[in-house]
Amino acid sequence: MQLINIGFGNIVSANRIIAIVSPESAPIKRIVQEAKDEGTAIDATYGRKTRAVIIMDSGHVVLSSIQPETVAGRLEKDDDNIVDEN
Predict the structure, then answer these.
(1) Which residues have CB under 8 Å from 68's CB, separation 6+?
(2) Are 50 and 25 in contact, with CB atoms under 8 Å apart?
(3) Spatial CB neighbours of 21, under 8 Å, sequence gap ≥ 6
(4) CA distance 40 to 23
(5) For the CA atoms of the chain, what is the radius of gyration?
(6) Closest Cα partner for 70 from 1, 2, 4?
(7) Most CB within 10 Å of its CB: which of 2, 43, 52, 79?
(8) Cα gap 13→15, rounded to integer Å
(9) Strand residues in the chain grouped as ranges (E)
(10) Which pLDDT tens digit goes with each residue over 35-46?
(11) Coil, strand or helix: which one is 53?
């Protein structure tokens, strides 16, 4: 199982990530608000501005205060370290 640091020592499973998006558009703001209303939002910003919204395959929405590009870069970096076992 791969784990990705999303800031402030918070870690999510890379295998469960569907999308990493910016919170600026109206549809993403609606997704975040619906997740908060349903109790499936996980706020990992520590009171800072939300810069990335991570959509998980479980229906959870994770809010992070680091840029989406940074999260994606960490995901790609971990993919490069995987050794092909075949």
Answers:
(1) 20, 21, 22, 51, 52
(2) no
(3) 28, 52, 53, 55, 68
(4) 16
(5) 13
(6) 4
(7) 52
(8) 5
(9) 3-7, 10-13, 17-21, 41-44, 52-56, 61-64
(10) 999 999 999 999
(11) strand
